[in-house]
Amino acid sequence: MRVVLGVGGGIAAYKAALLLRLFTEAGHDVTAVPTEAALRFVGKATWEALSGKAVRTEVFEAVESVNHVRLGHEADLIVVAPATADLLARAAGGHADDLLTNTLLMARCPVVMAPAMHTEMWRHPATQANVSLLRERGVHVLDPAEGRLTGKDSGPGRLPDPEDIFAAALSFAGGQNRDAEHDAGTAPEGGPLAGRRVVVSAGGTREAIDPVRFLGNRSSGKQGVAVARAALEAGAHVTLVAAHLEVSPPEGVEVVKVESALELREEMLERTASADAIVMAAAVADFRPARRSDAKIKKRDDAPDLPIELVRNPDVLAELVRGRDAAGTQQVVVGFAAETGDEGGDVLAYGRAKLERKGCDLLVVNEVGTDRVFGLDENSVTILSKDGAAPEHVAGSKDEVARAVVVRLARALEAR
Predict the structure, then answer these.
(1) What phi and psi values does residue 53 have, to the nearest 5 degrees?
(2) Cα gap 289→327, rounded to integer Å
């Protein structure tokens, strides 16, 4: 596949070098087209070494090949990362003041733009209007990730991980006739989950104490998002019920946003009624405050410490299994268990007990801690099965773990 990788002039340009490597290592023919501003962050030598091609930025370079027309005509896919606020504005306005914007105007292939900028720039009405206009024209503008920005601030505006951009771009690379399917949350035909409906939950729930504060957990949502992406790539129609995420949902899945455990329960019960498979990867809070203050609770020197009374949240996974069994359907239910060992037993012992207690078909068990799993790109899990199959240990990137889970899920569906 012939890929044009456009690079905007932002600090995140260095991540585009990793994206270029992903495309070339997958066997694609990549031409890098940075803007002049991008070359202030990453020089020509890097792009030429990684792509094996000369790098040009201006219309009046390589005129003999009519480069500003040829690149857009010949490309099977154009990916722009990072797409700065300025570059989004120029693309939306139809500007043609450098080689990249000319290439975008000539494109008749799928175009994917991955924004990266400061939070205020991303939220500015002008940027949002430009994004809406580009999307109306069929450009696939990804949502930025949330997290630490260039300075000390955090918020939406980070460039999504190169692996996420790579996967999203490939999901659109099959041709423009598939766009409507992706918008509806449908994957291309084929694959072990073709024709199946899969509902995945991901991220950490937040239980409100008052309008400002909440009880939460360390989940980034990366593993659940990876499972949703793997299921989509396997051919499934995927619905992602998303609590708090630190990564962008994959393009091509239907996303339902929730905040609390009760909201997640309500959406899961509704969305899974017609599903073939359920994957509960969300980190659902076990407890919530018994009472939520409608006003911010003030800290006062003349008042005693404030106790917070907790009540149990519903066991969503167990409830989904009971509903499946009562309806007599052939759904496959996959649970995730974040465990720590203690004097009462090790991680696998607690995992086996949870598998029996919950009644799900598969349970993905991982040992967690402040320096393990949460927020990281790597994971190490053991997949336990209700049917007594030998435990399967999988270690690697969260995408690799997700693909292993989807393989087991597909096998279980086929056996039914």
Answers:
(1) -135, 155
(2) 33
Q: What sign has the CA pseudo-torsion 359, 365, 371, 374?
A: negative
What DSSP assignment string belongs to 81-99?
Answer: EEE-HHHHHHHHTT--SSH
Q: What is the domain partition of the chain in residue ranges?
A: 2-182, 191-415
| pTM of the predicted protein model | 0.56
Across residues 137-162, what is the average pLDDT? 84
Task: Let me know how many helices (H) and strands (E) the chain has, helices first.
Answer: 14, 19
Q: Which residues contact 306 (CB under 8 A, 6 or more apart)?
A: 297
* Cα angle, residue 109 at apex, residues 107 and 114 outer, rounded to 5°: 85
399 labeled part of a ligand binding site: no
Judge if 2-182 and 191-415 fold alike in CATH terms.
yes
Which fold does the domain 2-182 belong to in CATH?
Answer: Rossmann fold (3.40.50)
210 is in an annotated binding site: no
Res. 1: pLDDT tops 90: no
* 71-88 confidence digits (pLDDT tens): 888 899 999 999 999 999
pLDDT tens digits, residue range 333-388? 999 998 776 776 778 888 899 999 999 999 999 876 445 445 577 888 999 999 88
Is residue 316 a known part of a binding site?
A: yes
296 is in an annotated binding site: yes
Tokens of 297: 């609770």
Tokens of 56: 């040009």
Q: Which positions are catalytic? A: 217
CATH number belonging to domain 191-415: 3.40.50.10300
Give 55-82 as a DSSP string: ---STTSSGGGTHHHHHHHH-SEEEEEE
Task: Answer yes or no: is 336 a known binding residue.
Answer: yes
